[in-house]
Description:
Radius of gyration: 56 Å
CATH superfamily of the largest domain: Hypothetical protein af1432
Structural class: mainly alpha
Number of domains: 3
Largest sheet: none
Order of helices and strands: HHHHHHHHHHH
Amino acid sequence: MKKIETTDAEIAKRAADLIIANKELLFQNEEKAKRVAELVLANIEKAKRVAELVIANEEKAKRAADLVIANEELAHQNEQRARRVAELVIANEEKAKRAAELIIANEELAYQNQEKAKRVDELKIANAEKAKRAAELIIANEELAFQNEEKAKRVAELVVANEEKTKRADELIIANEEKAKRAAELVVAMEVKAKMVAELVISKLEAINHEKLQLSLMETIDIARALVELRDPYTAGHEKHVGDLAKAIGAEMGLDEESIVGLKMAGLIHDIGKIAVPAEILTKPSALSGFEEKLVQLHPEQGYELLKDIEFPWPVADMVRQHHERIDGSGYPLGLRGDQILPGAKILAVADTLEAMSTHRPYRAALGLPAAIAQIKAESGKQLDAMVVSAAVKLFDGKESLDLGGGATD
Length: 410
């Protein structure tokens, strides 16, 4: 093989070319490094942007999730509202049904009231008939009184005749002054006795007539009381008990016998106006509504209207009208106060309170006499007359029942 000989010049040239090539390669490498650095910076910028986009997307996702939750809550609320609307619709339908039932009940009540009005008219006619009989009885009593006057005249004529005989006796025994004096004294005594006999006869006849009138009134009162108690079995005996209590309180207060009789009669019929109140309200086993309570509160005025044209010897109609009045003006139907209320009505108010609280009612059991005594004591001088309360407390305080000595009235 032929050996290639290389000169120094060629080696130097090749070395120079190699150096130039290395420099060129170094320049290219530097350019590439720059490009790589630029690419790295660009990638870092892109990564930063991607991170920002990821964060933005996460925020949007969070907002979307919140919006989904809000929409679900809104949907739940809408469901709740729809449910409430449905419930309101059902409730309104129920109210409409109740209103229809109430209208039917009111129509039924109106019909019943018409029937009761008819019964009241019939009762008025019966009362008119009784008033007519009472008038006939009064005429008969007047006739009897006239006959009594005629008898009294005859007695007086007999007295005059006796005086004439005495005068003749004086003429016969004029000679004997002592006998004449005794005869004169005898005549005077006879005149006194004759007068006493005449007065006794008249008083006896008046007492008989008065007793007959009272018996007639009592029979009428018993019939009226029976009518009330037939419609309201829970107050059976209530009016009689109130009459007995009022009589006992009046006696304790020192009223005269005539006033006590009138007071008892008023007590026996103080609730007669309840004839005009529907029986289903009187016997209702629960608390009354406002409308029902107003209907019940009409009974004193209704009682007055039934009794005002009957000629009692006492103010019975006014006592019946006022037995729910209170001295502070809080009562009904007129709102009277103090001395505007009759003394008899004040006594009836206390007797009525005692009896009502001590006995059973459709809406509650009896509260007992001790509770009733405590109640009238609390209302003494406020709603109830203090003197009447004092008399009632004296009669019954410390007792367990309304016992008047002739059997318990509770």
